[in-house]
Amino acid sequence: MKILITGGTTFVSKYAAEHFIAKSNDVTVINRGSRPQVDGATHINCDRTTLGDRLNGKRFDLILDITAYTEEHIKTLLDSGVIFDEYIFISSSAVYPVTNSQPFTEDQPCGYNSVWGEYGTNKLKAEQYLQANVPNAYILRPPYFYGVYENLYREAFPFDCALKDRAFYIPQNGEMKLQFFNVSDLCRFIEILIDKHPKDHIFNVGNKDIVTIKEWVELCYKAVGKTAEFVSVGKEIPQRDYFCFYDYEYVLDVSKQNELMPDTIPLEQGLKDEFEWYKNNLNSVYNRKPYMEYIGNNLVKK
Asked: Residue 134 and residue 89: Cα distance in Å, rounded?
């Protein structure tokens, strides 16, 4: 296939570009050229909101839109003169209001999410514009992505704590639930969509197995070859000051995904793979939050 990928230099979009190039596809990426490019990809160097005529008349079998966060991002791409057969947009589970019953299903109403704010409403507006203009587009709503090339300070935080033999300061009893999806499974599911063309066009994606934050930390430490020791932190301390997830528990119903792709990578294996990459690429994780400093200054008993 000829595939156009928005992004292509960090985390999900970089992994996707390498994945589809390895499958002998002709991959073009759009980004601003601020980071090294993936080997084998054709690079269009520009901001996606100022495409000009760079895509006018160019034809692709698939547009894989990973970096659209607003309606404008979708509009400028569709107005660029690009010609395509398939369009897949990576949206977000943040389009579901916190007031919806859980697990969230694809047929529930979408709207403002008080935790994610404008991020969720902008993703929803992008979805709506795409649906109005490309009715056959596929829209994927993931929970938390993880895996090789993760550039946010999530798994890297417990990895770092384990490497430093630190106890882990965990919110309350550690029972808050998390749901994940490996970037490798995302690429597999995209291939299934292109192959099978299911009648449904909106899919929640993610592991069907849910873990608590305590179980997630234990698996991160295990990936490093260590055993986690925990210190409980009371609810009176803002969770985001010392921990890498918001105090927000939600679960997606991924039964429609599972009908097409029954198995996903076990979280334990996926975290091992991510750590094997991370330990040799410590500088690839940017915007490191000062969780350890906060813990040392405010939570460690003197």
From this structure: 11
